[in-house]
Every structure is written in C-alpha cells, then in structure tokens.
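Hello Y.,

Per our agreement to keep a running log of every chain we model this quarter, I'm adding this entry. I've kept the format consistent with earlier entries: sequence first, then predicted structure.
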Amino acid sequence: MRFKPDTFTLALLSTVVLASLAPATGQFARLLDQATTWVIVLLFFLHGSKLSRQAIWAGIGHWRLHLVVTATTFAIFPLIGWLAQPLLAWALPAPLVQGMLFLCALPATVQSAIALTSVARGNIPAAVCSASGSTLMGIVFTPLLVGALLAHSGGSAGDPLEAVARIAVQLLLPFAAGHLLRPWTSKLLQQAGSKIRIVDQGSILLVVYAAFSSAVVAGLWQQMPLPAMAVLFGLCALLLAIVMGWCLWISRRLGFSAADEATILFCGAQKSLVSGIPMAKVLFSAAMVGPMVLPVMLFHPMQIMVSAVLAGRYGRRHDAANTLA
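Predicted structure for the entry above:
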C-alpha cells in the first residue's frame, strides 16, 4: 500500500485554498456561521443514528482494552502535550502551540478506527464500543483538558464547565436524539447508503471553509510562515510515532491478543477531525478556530495513511497464520 492522500484529504486542502483565496465576509460570513451550527447538529444526529446498540453490548465486556484506549486518548496524549510545551513554544508560533494542545485533548475517531480495525482483522465490536465511547467522553473531557492545558500555556478557552454545557447542547443532545430515534431512522440510513458519507464529509468541509475564512480575514497566513508549517508537520509526525509506539508497547506488556492489539492501536493513536472542528467552533472565537484546527487537519490524513499501511500488515499476518493453521 502506498502513502497517498484520499479524496477527502484533497477536498480538505482544496477547501483551505478556497478559503484563503476567497474567504467569506460580511453578511455571507454571518449566514455561513449560522448554517454551520445546524450542519453540526445534523452531523451528530446522524452519528447517533448509525450507532448500533447491539455493537455496544457486544464490545462493552472488554473493559481492560477500553481502559487502555481511554487512558491513551485522554491521559497519555495530553501528558505528552503538557511535557512538550517548552519544545512547542520554542518551535512554533503561540496559536499553533495551542492548536497542538487542543489536538492532544480531542477524542478518538469512530469511522476510520472501526474500518482500520476491520482491515487488520481486529476486535470490531470492541472497536465500535471504544471509539463511540471516546466521542461521548470527549464531550466532557475535551473542554476540561483544553482549559487546563491552555491555562498552563497562556491561552484560554473560557470557562471549561460552561464549554462542557455548550458542547453538550450542540453535540450530545443531537447524538442522543439520533440514537433514540434509531429504530425509525436506521432503515432510511441504510437506503441512503453512501449518500450519508457525502453529508458527513460535506458538513466538515463547510465548517472548515467557515473557520478558515474567519482566520484568513483575521490575518492567519501573515502569522503562520511556511517554515512554521513545516515544523508543525514534523511535530505531528513525531507525536503520532510516540503514541503508536506506546500503544504497541502497552498492548504487548499487558498480554493482549493480536486482534486486541490492533484495536488498541487504531482506536488509541487517532484523533477525531469530525469531533475536533465542531468542538473548536464551540470553544474558541471565530478568528481562533483556523489556527486551532491546523494541527488536527495535518494529523488526520497522516494517521489515516500510516494506519492503513499497518492495518494491511496486520491483516496479511492474520490471514497467513490462518492459512498455516
């Protein structure tokens, strides 16, 4: 398998270019901001509708695995960010330092974690339960972690408890409503098929355009020189390598099976762009959202491409072992 960007990554890059060349301003920007709020509500309603209760119960018994994934997502990642602050402050402009800390506080991905676990022949029910649980816990943990990390770095995300309440209203309520209405909506979602993915990805692209438009109007690219972007790319790669190494080490140290090891790797070492951008929109001012989400936008395609190669290797190793058996 090759390291190459997927269609969504190319669409993200194109959206950033469009926002840089033709940012939304004036009345259009205000209408766009209102539209993105409702788009995010729809996005999380669909996430709740797609979450199967059977999959939750099938995977919930693997408590040791879930504990490792949760600790990696909400303790190891933030700890690395906290320890790395002197290096980040030396290497990056202040907004990107805060963006890296925001990245470390985000929940794990859902769709890509499950898909990669499936390719790797990992524990799919546990991946569904762990990744979905991470999204829900992130609604509470992410604002609290961001408040603590940014307070130490000199930034601010406002009152963390107030942020939890705002995120709960905009993200958790639609998610819960979607899940409760699943008996009525699941058939419609199955009929829609791949069109739902268009809604998912289109929602994120719209929010990215709105976020970067505000940031560009506020002078984003004057504050972010190209060398800083190159350093940011390298630091994201280093962060990914450290956390993936941790996931492999702790999985083997605790004696997990190969299937569970793959699940821990692909649920624990990833961060969610789908949750991150809406959370940034709730937590930060419009002008701050652009630089705050730059690290997660770099980290997201990087984690997908590296994980795809590793998942393929896990899958081939599993198939070879079964053939020999």
